[in-house]
Design brief:
Blueprint: E1 2-3, E2 7-11, E3 24-27, E4 30-33, E5 39-43, E6 51-58, E7 65-72, E8 84-87, E9 101-104
Parallel strand pairs: 1-7
Antiparallel strand pairs: 2-5, 3-4, 3-6, 6-7, 8-9
């Protein structure tokens, strides 16, 4: 977890905890290279509500790695996005068909694109 607009560092190490300089780290729309100590620094974006972002690491000779991290809204109204409510039968028999209805917070069926 990181607060919006906060600067944070990522340290990339191998399985022996040895720092890996030159690794490519991607966060949100930013990309950086780790320094000689295996570190790179980013600034979390401003968000209107708590949001998850993926942090990716790539380096030649290693498998890529990724992690999900949340950026917390600390300034402003903490406006939540519109939420959808999904309902489905509590249990089914094998091969039984069922329908899923997605509704908005007011209880109306959602307009879904296909």
């Amino acid at each position: 977890m990181i607060n919006e607009s906060e600067t944070f560092s990522v340290t990339v190490t191998d399985t022996n905890n040895i720092a890996l300089p030159g690794a490519t780290v991607i966060f949100n729309t930013e990309q950086g290279q780790t320094n000689s100590g295996g570190k790179v620094t980013f600034t979390a974006p401003s968000v209107n509500y708590d949001t998850f972002y993926t942090l990716e690491v790539h380096m030649i000779g290693y498998l890529p790695a990724s992690a999900s991290m949340s950026v917390i809204n600390v300034v402003g109204s903490n406006t939540e996005p519109n939420r959808l409510v999904m309902s489905a039968p509590p249990s089914l028999h094998e091969n039984e068909q069922f329908s899923v209805v997605v509704r908005n917070e007011q209880g109306f069926p959602s307009q879904m694109s296909r």
